Each structure stands twice: as structure tokens, then as C-alpha cells.
């Protein structure tokens, strides 16, 4: 249990750390990129407004060095009344303010003119395309001119790209270092929990041992009283409560032992079993008990052969706990459904209920949990059985859940994972 808790702690901490660092890096890069884009668009606005030339930059609220630092080129296409490029007329191109070949510039502009976006990036170039009226008489077919202006942002984008790469390296290194730090810190943090767990198991073991002697004496004295004076209501009650206490002590000891996963695995005798046959045999044993209480026990089995790799005692314990719980808390019936879905075995137990709320009921797997209704109805039980069930299912990497549906029917569903199967 402590190892699982430690693994969860490491996983949650690492996921939180990675998420935080990743979000921070992405946010910083996005802000820097957005800032560069805004500045580039501002320069493009000035160039568009001034026919691709720089006027007095002070009036445009631009730095004085902008005309000298900005590397740009533009391409003009003549278009007809339908805004279609007149292909037999070569576009006008100006490369006086940038170092780029004519072929590369035309390739970029040809690609940009086919895009629906009026502004975007092409590599390290930010471009803007816009329509202006054709006031010249160069060609009678041309009514408008599409101008595409490109600004080279490579000098501004280079630090961002470098920062991104450096940030990735730093974050990756930090994550690796953090993992080892958290790994060792988690061991220190889990030590008090492990010690508390060991003390708890020791206490349960000692308490169980100490309780056995007085229970044995009480039982023996009760039998002696019955032999001398005959059986009566008081001796019956004593006998009933002694058996209940013995059962509770046994369950506590078993639950304590199950916490030590390594020792439990060593004691398991793993073989290939027919889960369907075990379920059928167990239901036959309980059928008479249900009938004596005026309740129906129904079993619905799949036609498929259901084989499982596990310990037979575990499988019988699982079914016994389910049926015993159904016997105690059902009103008139209990139904068991065994299904096989792909690589999983699904066992569902349903029974009618009284005074139970609709919704999730997974709290019943907590140790010593008993509802107020169960206590008020004087139903036998200690609240340990379903905890043992949950521990056994967990040891097979399975899942168990409980809920009350809209028809006020209690559902207990067990799923055993694929690794436990033999095909």
C-alpha cells in the first residue's frame, strides 16, 4: 500500500511539475512571438499606407532606425474585375531592400496569393496582401492591383527559436533532476506512513491474539452453563456474539496480512481455474441459505468458457463475500451475471434495497464502514468483508465498484484485467 501511495505521489508531482514548466515556456514564447507579430504588422501598415516606402517614422510612432533595420520586398500582381490574376503579365517585384533571389521571392508570393489569409507567416517572413485600384493605363484588362509585402523577421525570431531550444534542454534536465530529488524525498515522506502502517498491523496482530484467549474462555464457560442449566436465550446470545467476535478477529488478521503484498503473493497457489465452475458451486452452497430467508438467488452465466489464472481460495473468497453481502442486505432477491468481454471477466451482483440513496456507493469498501440503516436493522456484520474483497481484486489488478441505480437496485461490479487470463 505504501509503495502504491509513493508511486502516486511521484506521478502527481512530476505531472504537475511538467505541466507548470511546459505552460510557462509556451506562455513566454507565445508572448514574445505575439509581440514580434504586432510590431511587424505595424510596419506593414505603414508600408501599405505609403506605397511600400517609409515616410517620417516619427509621425508613425516607429523607432528612427526602422527604415534601416527593416528588410522587405513586395510583389504586385495585376488582376481583372473578378480579382483573378492576369497570368500573361509578369508581376512587378522590388528587391532593393532585401537580400533574396527573384525566384525565391516569386515562389513565396505565388504561394501567398493563393491563400485565403490576407496576412500570415511564410517561414521567417511576415507578409500582407491588399487590393488597390489600378490608376495607370498599363493594361485595359487590369482593374486592380494585388500587392504582397514581405518583411524579413528572422533577426527577431532567431532569439525566440534559440530560447525555445535552450528552454527545452533546461526543462528536460530539470525534470530529470527533479525526478531523482522527488524520488528520494518521497521515500523520506512515506517513512512515517510506513511506520504507522507497521504499527497498525502489529496492533491488529497483538489485539487479535489477546482477544482469542478471553473469547475461548467465554465460549467454554457458556458451554458449561448450557450443560449445567440448559440452553436459554442468554446463552444463545452469548454464543452468537462470541462467534461474531471470532469472525471479526479472523477478518482483521486476514486484512492485516493482505497489506503485505509480497508475503501474500508467496502464499498464493496460482493455477488455471474455471471461474464459471467456482461461481456455480458457490451459488449452490448459498442457495439454501437464501431460501431459508425467503429470498431468491438467481445466476446468469455466459456460454463461453471462462478461465482465469489465479489462486482458487481467492476466487472462492471473492464470490463468498459477494453472496454473503447480498444475503444480508437484499430485500427479496439477488442476481449474479457472469460475462466475458474481449479480454476481461465481468461479474455483476444486483439486489433490491431498502432505504438506500441513488448514486455512487464505493464508500462501502472502506474498513469498518456500515450504513446507519444497517446498524439500525441489527444486521450482522463488521464492515470488513468488502474491504477484503477490494484488497483481493486489487492484488489481481482488477477493479470493483458499487452504486445504486435509478430503480433503487444495488449493483456490485467486478472487472478482472486481461493479464490474469489464459486463452
Walk me through what this model shows.
The protein has 423 residues and is an alpha+beta fold. 53% of the residues lie in helices and 20% in strands. The protein has ten helices and 13 strands. It has helices spanning 2-49, 66-69, 102-113, 154-229, 233-258, 261-267, 275-292, 312-329, 372-376, 385-395, and strands at residues 72-79, 92-97, 119-122, 125-133, 144-152, 270-274, 296-300, 307-311, 333-341, 344-352, 359-360, 399-404, 409-416. The chain has a six-stranded mixed sheet, covered by helices on one side. The protein has a five-stranded antiparallel sheet with strand order 2-1-5-4-3, with helices on both faces. Helix 5 runs parallel beside helix 10 and helix 8 (312-329) packs antiparallel against helix 10. The radius of gyration is 39 Å and the shape is elongated. The model has no long low-confidence stretch (mean pLDDT 82).
Silhouette: elongated
Portion in strands: 15-25%
Sequence of strands across the biggest β-sheet: 7-9-10-13-12-11
Major sheet: 6 strands, mixed
From the alpha-carbon coordinates, what is the Rg to the nearest angstrom? 39 Å
How helix-rich are the residues, as a percent range? 40-55%
Number of H/I helices: 10
- Cα distance spanning the termini: 31 Å
* Helix and strand pattern: HHEEHEEEHHHEHEEHEEEHHEE
Number of strands: 13
Q: Segments where pLDDT lies below 50 for 5+ residues?
A: none
- Mean pLDDT figure: 82
Which structural class best describes the helix and strand composition? alpha+beta
Amino acid at each position: 500500500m505504501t509503495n502504491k501511495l509513493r508511486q502516486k505521489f511521484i506521478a502527481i508531482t512530476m505531472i504537475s511539475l511538467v505541466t507548470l514548466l511546459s505552460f510557462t515556456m509556451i506562455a513566454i514564447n507565445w508572448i514574445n512571438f505575439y509581440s514580434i507579430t504586432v510590431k511587424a504588422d505595424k510596419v506593414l501598415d505603414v508600408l501599405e499606407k505609403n506605397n511600400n516606402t517609409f515616410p517620417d517614422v516619427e509621425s508613425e510612432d516607429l523607432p528612427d532606425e526602422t527604415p534601416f533595420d527593416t528588410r522587405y520586398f513586395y510583389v504586385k500582381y495585376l488582376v481583372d474585375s473578378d480579382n483573378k490574376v492576369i497570368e500573361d503579365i509578369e508581376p512587378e517585384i522590388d528587391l532593393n531592400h532585401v537580400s533574396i533571389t527573384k525566384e525565391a521571392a516569386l515562389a513565396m508570393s505565388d504561394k501567398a496569393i493563393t491563400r485565403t489569409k490576407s496576412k500570415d507567416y511564410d517561414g521567417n517572413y511576415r507578409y500582407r496582401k491588399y487590393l488597390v485600384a489600378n490608376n495607370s493605363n498599363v493594361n485595359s484588362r487590369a482593374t486592380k492591383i494585388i500587392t504582397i509585402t514581405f518583411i524579413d523577421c528572422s533577426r527577431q525570431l532567431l532569439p525566440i527559436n534559440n530560447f525555445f531550444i535552450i528552454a527545452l534542454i533546461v526543462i528536460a534536465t530539470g525534470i530529470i533532476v527533479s525526478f531523482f530529488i522527488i524520488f528520494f524525498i518521497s521515500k523520506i515522506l512515506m517513512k512515517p506512513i510506513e511506520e504507522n502502517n507497521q504499527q497498525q498491523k502489529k496492533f491488529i496482530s497483538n489485539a487479535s491474539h489477546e482477544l482469542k484467549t478471553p473469547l475461548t474462555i467465554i465460549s467454554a464457560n457458556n458451554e458449561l452453563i448450557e450443560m449445567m442449566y440448559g440452553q436459554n436465550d442468554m446463552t444463545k446470545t452469548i454464543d452468537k456474539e462470541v462467534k461474531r467476535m471470532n469472525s471479526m478477529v479472523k477478518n482483521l488478521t486476514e486484512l492485516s496480512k493482505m497489506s503485505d503484498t509480497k508475503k501474500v503473493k508467496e502464499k498464493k497457489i496460482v493455477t488455471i481455474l474455471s471461474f464459471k465452475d467456482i461461481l456455480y458451486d458457490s451459488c449452490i452452497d448459498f442457495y439454501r441459505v437464501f431460501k431459508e430467508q425467503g429470498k431468491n438467488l438467481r445466476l446468469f452465466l455466459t456460454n463461453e468458457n471462462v478461465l482465469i489464472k489465479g489462486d482458487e481460495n481467492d476466487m472462492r473468497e471473492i464470490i463468498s463475500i459477494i453472496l454473503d453481502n447480498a444475503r444480508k442486505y437484499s430485500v427479496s432477491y439477488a442476481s449474479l451475471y457472469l460475462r466475458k468481454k474481449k479480454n476481461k471477466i465481468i461479474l455483476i451482483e444486483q439486489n433490491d434495497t431498502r432505504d438506500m440513496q441513488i448514486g455512487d456507493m464505493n464508500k462501502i469498501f472502506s474498513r469498518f464502514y456500515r450504513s446507519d440503516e444497517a446498524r439500525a436493522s441489527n444486521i450482522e456484520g463488521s464492515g470488513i468483508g468488502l474491504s477484503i474483497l477490494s484488497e483481493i481484486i486489487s492484488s489481481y489488478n482488477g477493479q470493483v465498484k458499487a452504486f445504486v441505480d435509478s430503480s433503487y437496485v444495488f449493483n456490485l461490479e467486478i472487472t478482472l484485467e486481461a493479464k490474469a487470463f489464459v486463452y
